[in-house]
Structures are given as C-alpha cells and as structure tokens.
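Reply to dn_fold:

You asked what the input looked like. This is it:
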Amino acid sequence: MGIENHSAAFAPPPPRADGRANLVGLSREELDAILREAGFEAFRARQVWHWIYHRGVTDFAAMTNLAKPAREKLAEGFVVERPLAVKDLLSDDGTRKWLCRMPADGQEIETVHIPEADRGTLCVSSQVGCTLTCRFCHTGTQRLVRNLTAAEIVGQVMLARDHLNEWPSPKDSRMLSNIVMMGMGEPLYNYENVAKALKIVMDGEGIAISKRRITLSTSGVVPMMERCGRELGVNLAVSLHAVNDELRDRIVPINRKYPIADLMNAVRNYPGLNNARRVTWEYVMLKGVNDSLADARELVRLVKGIPSKINLIPFNPWPGAPFECSDWAQIERFADFVNNAGYASPIRTPRGSDIMAACGQLKSESQRPTPAQRAAQIEAHKTLMAEYAAQVAAKEAVLGL
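and this is what came back:
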C-alpha cells in the first residue's frame, strides 16, 4: 500500500459529536484562524497558545488574563482535550508507562517515560497498532487500527507533563527533556500528523523541546526520509536489525519494498547529517539470528562513510515471542568489533522490562496472540535459526573468525 493510500485507509476518527473543536493539535496558524472565525481578537490566539502549551491548562476558566465573557465563549465552542491515562505503571528502575485512551473513540496506545541522571526521555506512539509486522516486536503482532491525530501525539507529551507535575514548561532541570518517536507505529506512515505534533512540541513559546532533543525512528520508509530531515531537522534513528536483504526481508518486512541499498542511500542523503549529528542504527540482538561476528563485519561495511552510532539492543522478550536474546558475552564481542572499527556501539540497558515497557514490548493489552499463533511463531523461528546458523558457519569459515 502506498504512503498516501495508507494515510487515507487508516485515517483518524471524525470530529467530536457535540460540535466543539479541540484546540490541542492545531498549528499556530490554524489556532489563529479558528479563533478569528469565532469572533475573537487577533491577539487571543497567542494567549490561548500560552495557556495550553506553556501552562498546561485544560479549563478555559483558568485562563485568567482573558475576560470572563471570552472564557465562557471559548468553553461554548471549544475544548482542550488530551488522552486519558487509564493505567499508570511504575517499574523498579523508575521507568513509567501509561496506557492512554483516546477520547474520540476509546482506542488505546502506550507511552513510556525513561528517567536518567541527566535527562528524561518520553517514548511517544504515532499509531494504534502497527502495519509493519516486524517479527521481534510486540507491537507488530497487533494489527494497525488507525493513525493518531496531531492532538493525540502531542497529547501524550502533555499527559506525561501532567503526571510528572511539570507545568509550566521549565527552562532547566526538566524531567521530560527528550522525545523519541519510538513507540507504537511507524512515524513516517503517519508523517503529516507526526510533523504537525513535533512542530508544536518544538515551539519556543510552548512545550519548547529543541529539535536536537527529538529523535524520529523509522524502519525504513525511504520516500519520506529526506522530507522529514528537511522540514523537521530532528535526529534520525533507523531500525536496521539485519545486514543482508535475505534476513531483513523476513524479520523487517518493509525491506521487501525498500531494500538495504535504497535505505543506505536515503540515510546518506538525510539533511544535516554530520559527525556532530550522527544517525543512530538500532540493532536488536537475536540469538543465533543476527549476532555473529560475520554480521558485525558486514554492519561495519554497510555504514562506512556514514556518521553513525550503533545502538545494540538486547532482545526484550514478550509473551509468545519467537526469539531469544543473544548471550551477553556474544553481545559484548559484537560491540567490541564494531567499536574497534571506529563506531560507537553502546549496549542499551533494558529499562522497564518488568512492566512490559522496554524496547519492542509495547502493545495495547486488549489484543493477544492465541496459543495456535504462538506455536506457529515458535516453529517458524526454529526453521529460521537453523537456516541462518548454516549461513553464519559458512561466512565465518571463509573469514576465519
């Protein structure tokens, strides 16, 4: 399915039944236009923007620098609405996951906050479910329901701020300082809404998170990558996970449409890429599948000449997962090989795995694989491991590894 057809087929729900418009998710220009059309003065849009995105207010009555008649008129025609956290889970390591319900139709997605000593990162979802069916990813087992609106995407940031008690937007020492578009869904298959939401997040008079602190992760929607870099200027992460088309076709099926050679070319041409602003390659470590030193050697060859960092991600298990995590010693050998070749290759510390909040574990709980589906996944994995083990042995024999 083409990108435009994909957007139409999985479009967000229609507007509210009561006719009131949600002001969250509107661009500055749209907010100005809708308020002018409703009879408000030109300066009101900037005031409302400040209250919504800097102060975090959801009740027009709290917008105290607006006259009472103006506040009442706003309440009659508009709402400030964002997702509702129906579950709030806290990991032993401080990671926090919210199951977010969309007010428009009750669909649910997950959002994760990962605190660290020097920053706090929010992992944001772009779709309800996912269309890509990557075999190691829990979200990929959930059929795509629909795209999220710009309001629902920026609303996740606002919900997190609510629960972290971080309004008004602080200048320093933020608990929510970074955003990664690495939650449920493929951001570039919902680009218009993702871009609109991120522009709101980056606006200096509101939430005010710099583009340097935002990373968009894609599985390789090649036609949209240059536009993303040109229009948003955010950091790029690419879910690679395999170093040849044969394997990547099977575990990251979008590769059948946009193979590795095309993906590499798109990354090389990503606007703004340089040694100070590198692409991050995400590489999940799957035991006996993609973790050999022959794979490490080919990975180094693929990224040659591209300013790169390789994030090695120990596989995080989920119910019915058809893979196992690589042995820790093998992950370290892989990392050392890549690092010695001149590329930073940190091993990502799993965070939030006890609440199913780690990388690759997100999924709305209302859908689970059946026992028959799990059995089929395990059998398919056994076949894949056997085939790939033979290939690895042959490669390593040739290379003398």
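Confidence is low (pLDDT under 50) at residues 364-369.
Hope that clears it up.
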